[in-house]
């Protein structure tokens, strides 16, 4: 026994496969080693989604534009929902691009195992590579959409002398990061459970669809009755979208306390998600 | 690193699977399991490979597998379907975790359980080389460096910028294998991928694998049903059966023992009681037997082995007839390879014996069955005994670097002669 152990030390194994798992691994270091693969997946998804289309990446612009127009007609003109005195097009667009970013991130993440089972069954790489690359892909789309948003914003700024530019615009990257954190964390948690019981996936699809109505996408949070305000603001997306609007339009003061709560919620979800995902990523392959 | 170094060491690997449908019931079990775990109700009900009271919905795909692999070894894994080969490869590739045991290793490990993993149909051949290469663990720089080599190996230069969905299946596989062949890990795991592609390309791939192991000192773990390829490529082999390691040693011995095991089907059938024997009022079978005349002491029926078919039957004629017997040899697919008969002649009531020798170097490798027909007056059958004996004929080759399937219904041994006519 002793000699065997000595031999092992001398041989200096570089890796080990064993059933033992640690509760404290999040797999972030592995992720750095696989950065090339992450970027490759981003490239694949961006190229592949506009193959054999006529206008190609222009769709990235058109999707939020159409959604905004429909909201403008339905909620702005028919239902006459308040937009807190901000130009309707900018109000709806700000809501829709952030909501879509969140939605695409979380739905991309929660189906990680199901949509990639064929690859996961044949080759190993940290499974986290897939949701992370999805987040980056969606961030590229979001950036392009933000450019469109900013163009329209500048149009109002220059020709109608509306709004003013303020230092709080620097919060934008933080808001995007926060949205991504929230989506990734909850998506990872759902992914681990959907692999075993598909009902959970149906359930969350339903919740996600309803989610738009407890998030100020097509209405301002000011129309929510006072007694529900606290609950409403506990949804991390509420302070995110409201802060985003405040930064550009200044119609309401930024609610830093709720932003702080949202940050805490997102970080806790992400840590839980990463740990559980790392712990279960290989085992899941036996049951999928 | 020099040779004679252990590069991979597996200790007590077991893998447990719970069978059955995941649904309401398993959810209930999960809850119960969680409950027990949380409150430690019943003692140590730990999953243990030595605990053999297997209920029907449990399966030990692997039990207590240990082995060491040296650097530069090319190790073949043999075993029937369900022996645990794929599970072991999956554990080595980190796709699934062992239930118990550890594997320690050194160097980069790449697995090729399929060619073209992660290919995206909409992307061009060029994009897919990078995509697949990186999925398999290559770095972008490495791919750039080997790019021209990969393209040349695949032979699809002209279609490099065409989406792979427009490729023929042959082109697709060639591109996929070309990428795989240029992987450069210390340990390469290959699973049956040789079953794809045309024969020319197969040869190229096997050649490449041999070169990788021989010249570059890489370690290859290789699963294939093609015993010829295993014999030619591997210096060591591991025989698995029902999840257990039966034998680990030199390829020649392992393959021989494995094939002997495979050929374990009864070559002899004896019926002592005429009333229970197959037959009818005229014929009752007493004995059926295949007697191989082994050419070496391996005790394996291969294409060189002459086979004598012997049969005995009780003959109970109700009238005076000329009796003849015809024997046919069929493949398992039901194709008749040949049908030979005896001279028809009268026999007395009693025991009759017959035999027929199939010479060596006639049959191709494969699984065969023997059928006998008893004929009255060379015109009508009085009894047919279909597929009464079966046996496998293994391949045997010398002086050839071709490991693919040898074509043809038969494999006679006469040569094509070549002669230099003029200088």
Strand content of chain A: under 5%
Low-confidence stretches of chain A: 1-9
Q: Largest interface: which pair?
A: A-B, 34 and 42 residues
Main structural class of chain A: mainly alpha
How many domains of chain B? The number is 2
What's the name of the CATH homologous superfamily of the largest domain in chain B?
Answer: P-loop containing nucleotide triphosphate hydrolases
Helix and strand pattern of chain B: EHEEHEEHHHEHEHEEHEEEEEEEE
Main sheet specs of chain B: 6 strands, mixed
- Sketch the major β-sheet of chain A: none
First and last CA, distance of chain B: 51 Å
Shape summary of chain B: globular
Overall average pLDDT of chain B: 84
Number of helices of chain B: 8
Low-confidence stretches of chain B: none
Summarize the structure.
The complex is a heterodimer of chains A (288) and B (423). By secondary structure, chain A is mostly helical.
Task: Characterise this structure.
The complex is a heterodimer of chains A (288) and B (423). Chain A is built from 13 helices and 1 strand, in the order αβαααααααααααα. Chain A is mainly α and 288 residues long. In chain B, 24% of the residues lie in helices and 32% in strands. Chain B folds into 2 domains: 192 residues, 3-Layer(aba) Sandwich (Rossmann fold); 126 residues, Coagulation Factor XIII, Chain A, domain 1, CATH 2.70.50. Chain B has 423 residues and is of the alpha+beta class. Chains A and B meet through strand 1, helix 3 and helix 7 of A and strand 1, strand 4 and helix 3 of B.
Please specify the SSE layout and strand pairing.
The complex is a heterodimer of chains A (288) and B (423).
Chain A: H1 2-11, E1 15-17, H2 28-33, H3 35-49, H4 58-78, H5 88-110, H6 112-115, H7 117-120, H8 129-159, H9 171-194, H10 198-211, H11 226-234, H12 237-249, H13 256-280
Chain B: E1 6-18, H1 24-39, E2 58-70, E3 74-78, H2 85-92, E4 100-105, E5 109-112, H3 125-135, H4 140-154, H5 169-181, E6 187-191, H6 199-216, E7 219-223, H7 227-233, E8 236-241, E9 244-250, H8 251-262, E10 268-270, E11 283-292, E12 307-315, E13 323-331, E14 336-341, E15 350-358, E16 366-376, E17 380-393
Parallel strand pairs in B: 3-7, 3-8, 5-6, 6-7
Antiparallel strand pairs in B: 1-2, 1-4, 8-9, 10-11, 11-12, 12-15, 13-14, 13-16, 16-17
């Amino acid at each position: 026994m002793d000699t065997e152990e000595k031999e092992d030390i001398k041989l200096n194994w570089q890796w080990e496969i064993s059933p033992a798992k640690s509760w404290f691994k999040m797999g972030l270091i592995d992720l750095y080693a696989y950065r090339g693969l992450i970027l490759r997946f981003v490239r694949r998804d961006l190229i592949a989604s506009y193959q054999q289309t006529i206008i190609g990446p222009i769709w990235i612009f058109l999707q939020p534009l159409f959604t905004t127009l429909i909201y403008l007609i339905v909620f702005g003109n028919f239902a006459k929902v308040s937009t807190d005195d901000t130009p309707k097009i900018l109000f709806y667009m700000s809501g829709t691009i952030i909501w879509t970013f969140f939605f695409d991130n979380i739905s991309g993440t929660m189906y990680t195992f199901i949509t990639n089972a064929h690859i996961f069954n044949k080759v190993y790489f940290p499974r986290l590579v897939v949701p992370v690359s999805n987040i980056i892909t969606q961030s590229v789309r979001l950036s392009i959409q933000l450019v469109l948003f900013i163009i329209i914003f500048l149009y109002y700024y220059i020709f109608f002398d509306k709004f003013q530019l303020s230092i709080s615009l620097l919060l934008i990257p933080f808001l995007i990061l926060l949205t991504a954190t929230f989506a990734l964390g909850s998506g990872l948690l759902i992914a681990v459970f959907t692999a075993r019981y598909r009902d959970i996936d149906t359930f969350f699809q339903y919740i996600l669809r309803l989610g738009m109505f407890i998030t100020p996408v097509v209405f301002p949070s000011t129309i929510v009755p006072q007694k529900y305000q606290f609950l409403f603001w506990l949804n991390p997306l509420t302070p995110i979208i409201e802060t985003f609007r405040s930064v550009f339009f200044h119609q309401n003061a930024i609610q830093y306390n709720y932003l702080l709560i949202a940050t805490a919620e997102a970080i806790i979800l992400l840590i839980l998600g990463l740990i559980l995902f790392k712990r279960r990523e290989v085992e899941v392959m036996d049951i999928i | 690193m020099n040779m004679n170094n252990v590069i991979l060491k597996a200790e007590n690997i077991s893998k447990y699977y719970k069978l059955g449908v995941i649904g309401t019931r398993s959810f209930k079990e999960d809850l119960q399991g969680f409950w027990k775990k949380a409150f430690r109700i019943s003692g140590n009900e730990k999953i243990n490979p030595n605990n053999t009271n297997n209920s029907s919905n449990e399966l030990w795909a692997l039990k207590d597998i240990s082995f060491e692999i040296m650097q530069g070894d090319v190790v073949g894994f043999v075993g029937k379907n369900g022996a645990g080969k794929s599970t072991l490869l999956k554990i080595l590739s980190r796709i699934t975790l062992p239930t118990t045991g550890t594997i320690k290793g050194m160097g980069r490990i790449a697995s090729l359980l399929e060619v073209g993993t992660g290919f995206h149909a909409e992307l061009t051949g060029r994009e897919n080389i990078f995509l697949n290469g990186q999925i398999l663990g290559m770095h972008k720089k490495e791919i750039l460096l080997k790019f021209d080599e990969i393209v040349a190996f695949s032979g699809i230069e002209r279609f490099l910028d065409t989406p792979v969905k427009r490729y023929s299946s042959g082109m697709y596989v060639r591109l996929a294998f070309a990428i795989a062949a240029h992987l450069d890990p210390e340990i390469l795991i290959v699973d049956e991928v040789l079953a794809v592609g045309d024969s020319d390309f197969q040869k190229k791939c096997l050649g490449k694998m041999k070169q990788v192991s021989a010249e570059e000192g890489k370690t290859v773990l290789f699963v294939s049903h093609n015993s010829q390829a295993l014999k030619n490529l591997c210096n060591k082999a591991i025989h698995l059966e029902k999840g257990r390691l039966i034998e680990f040693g030199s390829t020649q011995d392992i393959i021989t023992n494995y094939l002997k095991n495979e050929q374990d089907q009864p070559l002899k059938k004896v019926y002592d009681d005429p009333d229970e024997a197959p037959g009818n009022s005229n014929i009752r079978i007493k004995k059926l037997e295949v007697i191989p005349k082994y050419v070496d002491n391996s005790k394996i029926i291969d294409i060189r082995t002459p086979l004598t078919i012997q049969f005995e039957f009780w003959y109970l004629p109700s009238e005076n007839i000329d009796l003849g017997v015809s024997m046919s040899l069929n493949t398992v697919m039901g194709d008749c390879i040949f049908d030979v008969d005896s001279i028809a002649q009268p026999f007395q009531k009693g025991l009759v014996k017959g035999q027929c020798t199939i010479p060596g170097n006639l049959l191709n490798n494969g699984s065969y069955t023997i059928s006998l027909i008893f004929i009255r007056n060379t015109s009508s059958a009085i009894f047919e005994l279909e597929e009464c004996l079966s046996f496998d004929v293994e391949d045997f080759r010398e002086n050839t670097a071709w490991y693919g399937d040898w074509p043809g219904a038969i494999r006679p041994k006469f040569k094509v002669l070549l002669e230099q006519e003029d200088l």
